[in-house]
């Protein structure tokens, strides 16, 4: 397929690399030109601006870190709304707020293009290995059209429903539950450490027992080793995603009391200068409050 990729951070760069290796015709763009150099060396065409990354494409994928950047890329003069050919799909793979996605879907519809959400599940290393999960939302036939791209980048695929917001709210809720799991792991390790149990032992109790799953294995390992520099999502990104979940919840009158606990810990980590560490460092705040640091 003829694909454009906008946003070449750790996730976007890894995803673009997978698309290129799968033989797709790729144009890439990032406001920091250095981010595109290695992809250009591997055969991708490097666009000088957003208009060029849209030329002749069937799909343009964005992997952007914040709502503000996402809105700017879509709506500014020469942005995606201005530049995408009629009927072309904007595949949104960054995590963004529900009201903003709804507004941007309308902007695209008014311009004659289409916004489809294909939200990601997985840390950067899973993007490198092509083992991401995808949650898609939008008209089923258009989501199905994206499957050759998803196959190149992922290993599991869930269709959430006929609207983009169906995928958005599933991703936000998934991130919320993961935050609760990280908080619970931290609290469990704090409790067992206070009784002299090695953190790695309790990690194995969890991951070899009732919680034998990717989240508890991966984050349990990070927390038990206190390897906060093994960054998947930073505190800044984790807090952003958490706030987006609260925004969606408040919009429809849904309380998220468990989220208040770990959001408070994320704020404390931010205040402690730990914004660029993995968001599982919220467990370290639990350790501090438990007298373990």
Key traits:
54% helix, 8 strands, 15 helices, eight-stranded mixed beta sheet, 293 residues, alpha/beta
Describe the structure concisely for a colleague.
By secondary structure, the protein is of the alpha/beta class. It has helices spanning 10-21, 37-41, 50-54, 67-75, 80-83, 98-111, 124-128, 140-145, 147-153, 164-194, 199-207, 214-225, 235-251, 257-271, 282-289; strands spanning 2-6, 25-29, 45-46, 59-62, 89-92, 114-121, 132-137, 154-161. Strand 2 (25-29), helix 2 and strand 3 (45-46) form a beta-alpha-beta unit.
Descriptive overview:
- The chain has 293 residues and is α/β, with parallel strands linked by helices.
- It is built from 15 helices and 8 strands.
- Helix 1 links the parallel strand 1 and strand 2.
Work out the number of β strands: 8
Order of helices and strands: EHEHEHEHHEHEHEHHEHHHHHH
The parts where pLDDT drops under 50 for at least 5 residues are: none
The rounded distance between the terminal residues' Cα atoms is: 52 Å
- C-alpha Rg (nearest Å): 20 Å
Counting DSSP H or I runs of 4 or more residues, the number of helices is 15
Q: Largest sheet at a glance?
A: 8 strands, mixed
**Strand-residue proportion:** 5-15%
Looking across the biggest beta sheet, what order are the strands in? 3-2-1-4-5-6-7-8
Shape: globular
- Helix content range: 40-55%
Overall structural class, as computed from helix and strand content, comes to alpha/beta
